[in-house]
Amino acid sequence: MAGVMLNGDRTVTSKRCASEPPRRTDTLVCKPCRPDPEGTADLESQRAREATPGWLALLVGLVGIVAGLALPFCPVRAQTTTLTWPVPGQPVVSSSAIVVPYRPLHLQATIPCAALRAATASAVRVIALSTGTGPAGLTVGGDRTGISVAADGRSVHLPVARHDVACDVHVAAGPAGMSVRDADSGRTIELPGHPVPEVFGFRTDLDAADATGMQVRLEVGDSFTTSPGPLKNALIGVQLIAAAAALWLLPRPTAPRRRWLRQRDRLWWVDVAVVAVLAGWAVIGPLAVDDGWAAMIARNQAETGNPGNYYRWWNAAEAPFALSQQLLAPLTGVSVAPFWLRGPSTALAIATWFVLTRGVLRAALPGVAASMRVRSLAALFLLATWLPFNLGTRPEPYVALGVTAVLALAIRARSPAGVGWLLLVVAVTVPISANGLLVVAPMMVFAPRLIAAVRAASARMHLSAVVAMLCCVAAVALTVVFADQTWDGVVVATDWHNFFGPSLRWHEEPLRYRYLLGSDQQGSFAKRLPVLLSVAMVPITLWAGLRRGDRIGRPGARLAGVVATALALLALSPSKWSYHLGSAAGLLAALLTVGVVMLVQRVAAADRYGVLAGVVGSALAAGAAALAFAGPNAWWLPAVYDVPWADTAPRPLGLPLAHPVLWLGLVAALSAAAGIAARRPGALRVVVAGPAMIAVTAVGMALALLVGSFVAAPIRRPAGSLALMNTHWIGGSRSCGLADDIEVLPDGAILDTAPDPGGAIAGFTAHGGFVPGAPPPDPPGRGTSTFLWGSRAAGVAATAAMTSPWFVLPVLSPDAGIAVSVSGRTNGGNALAFEFGRSQGAEVSVLSDRAPNDRPAAGEDPDHPLWRTIGVDAAEVPRGADRVRIRAVDARTDAFGWLAFTGPRLRSIVPLNRFLAGHGPVLLSWPQSFVFPCVRDIATISGGVAQTPVVVIESPRPWLTEDRDPDVGGTFTELAQFGNLYEIPSRLVGHPEVDWGTVKVSGDTASRDAYQRTVTEVIVPGSGGVAHQRPER
Question: Which domain does 321 fall in, by range?
Answer without folding.
Answer: 229-715
